[in-house]
């Protein structure tokens, strides 16, 4: 260094010397702290001083991690919830399907029992859909002329008469329900064998028993079954239950309403059976042969 260099530019010990001094000092401090714990008090004070700095340094990172964990858990929970909902819907659909099959099997067993009680030809038909005309009460079934279904056959479920086949196609048939407007069925009251006629009033409306005097022996709860007098419906088939009887003073007829026993809307299958068997011709009167004999004489 030049002799005229200012004093404050003068360098101290050489770098190597300073390194050795500071190294020895550090080593001495480490040994003394390890043996005598001289720095514990200072370390505690420093920890108190630098804690706010540590908190400021670590808090944003911790909060960011917490927010990330929160959204990740939310995503996982949403996915899990969606999966559980899908499984629940699948299980519910399976349970509904099982319940529907059980109900269908029960109906088929009931129809089988009902068929066994009818000594006529019968055939199982499946309901496809309601008739297209909203002002009529009709059903379309999945059997037609190819399956030997014929117009005039009676259609029943395991509870009672549903209607009559009125139109037949090769693969389907049309059934007119007993609730169709002005469709009439000759019936009798099972309790007292009183014969009458029940009329349809339209889809989703009750049946009506018409032209009966106010003092007629019919009451709510009476069961109406086919009488067989028309030669169409076999006798003894349940048709309806009386639900309302109105007897008004001064009226020529009672107002009597009945509810069909057949509930086809709750089932998928019906039973098509032949109508009433053909009746034997009336025997000739005894006067006919006598008149013939007189002519011979």
Characterise the protein shown here.
Pfam families: MreC. One of its GO terms (biological process) is regulation of cell shape. Involved in formation and maintenance of cell shape. Residues 84-118 form a coiled coil. This is Cell shape-determining protein MreC. By secondary structure, the protein is α+β, with helices and mostly antiparallel strands. It folds into two domains: 14-117; 122-273, Thrombin, subunit H. 37% of the residues lie in helices and 23% in strands. It has three helices and twelve strands; from the N terminus they run H-H-E-E-E-E-E-E-E-E-E-E-E-E-H. A six-stranded antiparallel barrel has the order 1-2-5-4-3-12. Strand 10 and strand 11 (255-260) form a beta hairpin. The termini are far apart. Residues 278-297 have low confidence and may be disordered.
């Amino acid at each position: 260094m030049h002799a005229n260099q200012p004093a404050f530019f003068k360098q101290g010990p050489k770098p190597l010397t300073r390194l050795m001094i500071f190294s020895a000092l550090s080593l001495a401090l480490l040994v003394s702290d390890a043996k005598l714990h001289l720095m514990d008090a200072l370390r505690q004070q420093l920890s108190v001083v630098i804690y706010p700095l540590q908190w400021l340094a670590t808090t944003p990172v911790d909060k960011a991690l917490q927010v990330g964990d929160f959204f990740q858990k939310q995503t996982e929970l949403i996915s899990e919830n969606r999966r559980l909902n899908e499984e629940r819907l699948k299980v519910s659909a399976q349970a509904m399907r099982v319940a529907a099959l059980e109900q269908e099997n029960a109906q088929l067993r009931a129809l089988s029992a009902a068929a066994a009680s009818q000594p006529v030809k019968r055939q199982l038909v499946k309901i496809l859909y309601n008739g297209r005309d909203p002002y009529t009460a009709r059903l379309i079934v999945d059997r037609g002329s190819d399956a030997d279904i014929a117009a005039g056959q009676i259609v029943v479920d395991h509870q009672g008469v549903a209607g009559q086949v009125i139109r037949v196609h090769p693969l389907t048939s049309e059934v007119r329900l007993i609730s169709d407007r002005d469709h009439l069925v000759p019936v009798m009251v099972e309790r007292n064998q009183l014969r009458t006629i029940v009329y349809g009033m339209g889809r989703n409306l009750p049946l009506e028993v018409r032209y009966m005097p106010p003092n007629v022996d019919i009451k709510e709860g009476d069961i109406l079954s086919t009488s067989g007098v028309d030669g169409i419906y076999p006798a003894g088939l349940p048709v309806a239950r009386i639900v309302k009887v109105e007897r008004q003073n001064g009226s020529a007829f009672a107002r009597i309403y009945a509810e069909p026993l057949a509930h086809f809307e709750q089932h998928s299958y019906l039973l098509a059976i032949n109508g009433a068997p053909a009746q034997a011709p009336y025997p000739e009167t005894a006067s006919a042969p006598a008149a013939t004999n007189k002519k011979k004489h």
